[in-house]
Specification:
The chain is mainly β and 330 residues long. It has no helices and 24 strands.
Amino acid sequence: MSHQPTEPPVPHQLTPETLTPSTPTAPAPVTHAAPDATLVVRLVDQRDHPLQPALVLTGQLNAPVRLKIPEIPGYTLLDIQGFTQNFLSAYGLTTLVYQSIWGQPVTTYLIDYDTGQLLALPRTLRGKLRTPYQLTPPAVTGYHIFQAEGNQHGQFSDQSKRVLYFYRRDAWQTVQRVHQYVTLTADHDVYDLPAGTAYGYQFPATSLWRLFAIITLTDQSVWYNLGGNQWLAATDTQRHQHWSRVMALPPKVTTWTQRQTVHWTGHVDYVPQGRLTIYREPYGEVAGQLQNGDALDVRQCLTDDQGLVWYQVGPAAYINARYVRLNPQK
């Protein structure tokens, strides 16, 4: 029995009708409910003064409140009044209370204008940042205000400030700063202040001193400052613009109780390594100096009316006998 070959089945052909494209579906619109709650946030200081415009927050009832605490320069948060985490009612109020930060201090110094010394301990004034301050010079017994440096009124800030008050003594009428010299023509007591307390010692006549200031008091007396707290009255003095001047030497000794021509030898008996002054005549001008141990040829021995002995050791050279050791004489 023979079999006839069969044809393979023809695959099913898709027609355009079977490829109908699907229509995309549009997303459902998102809807937001209208806010039905409002929270007002006030920003005030401790006196209930507004620091910034109030914040207005809106949302749904019972929804959480999203509030970031504002930072206000110069202030720090002190309290929250009416705090809430959710919108609990249609209208709500929260108050943020801030306090001012302390500013840097203002320090005052009371200074003697003429001596630079502090008249009292420094005073420190403190206050809240950006709050005002006002200063006036304090009264100081025996002084009057002379000058001020620094802002005596303003606001406390983040920078420290200082105010200097300079005072002058009531009894000081005028003060002159000078670069002069003064020769004393008489012995002078030395004082701690003009018309002040004497130290108990004197500066000798004919001495020359550097002069730093001249003070005239209200009683018209004049005082000289010789540096530091050393003062003397201007009476019996001579002022100079330069350190050099011709000094008036003490009166020469004219009364000799004894004059003796001698031929002695000896040497200077002074301090080791020291130099001894010799004079052109007793109590006269300086002629030079001799070393300790220098040999001497004594020509004359003179004794004055005070019992002081001088040796002549050259044509115009005299030395005090107390500093001479004579050699044994033959």
